[in-house]
Amino acid sequence: MNDDMKGSLMGALENVIDPELGIDIVNLGLVYDAEMVDEGTAKVTMTLTSMGCPMGPQIVSNIKQELMELPEVKDVDVNIVWNPPWSRDNMSRYAKMALGVR
Domain MIP18 family-like, which positions (predicted)? Predict the structure, then answer.
């Protein structure tokens, strides 16, 4: 997959906001990978801030909605993994500043 496509996928994922923290899942460091597999299937490997995150299904639904807007994407496969576990260190400088985390 070319870097442009990965950029498009990550750009679309920046529109998906974590409802609890109010910051997008890319800046929170929840997205570990986004790639096109097969013809037209976008595969997102990500985690959630906590294992019992009640927003998981909503976030997955929002991811599918955003990625399906890209003309190349016909299907979306979201793979939620718990390893490596998410930590505040994954957050971008922007997210840390927005949340007041150092």
Answer: 10-79
Number of domains in the chain: 1
3-state SS class at 31: strand
pTM of the predicted model as reported, rounded to 2 decimal places: 0.92
Which structural domain, as residue segments, surrounds residue 44?
3-99
Please compute the mean of the pLDDT values over residues 4-27 and round it to a whole number: 95
**Within 13 Å, how many C-alpha atoms sit on residue 73's CB side?**
24
Which letter, b or e, does each residue of 15-54 get, where b requires 16 or more Cβ atoms within 10 Å of its Cβ? ebbbeebebbbbbbbbbeebebeeeeebbbebbbbeeebe
- pLDDT digits 0-9 by tens, 20-49: 899 999 999 999 999 999 889 999 999 999
Provide the CB-side half-sphere exposure for 14 (13 A, CA). 11
Per-residue three-class SS string for 68-82: CCCCCCCEEEEEECC
What average pLDDT does this structure show over 54-74?
96
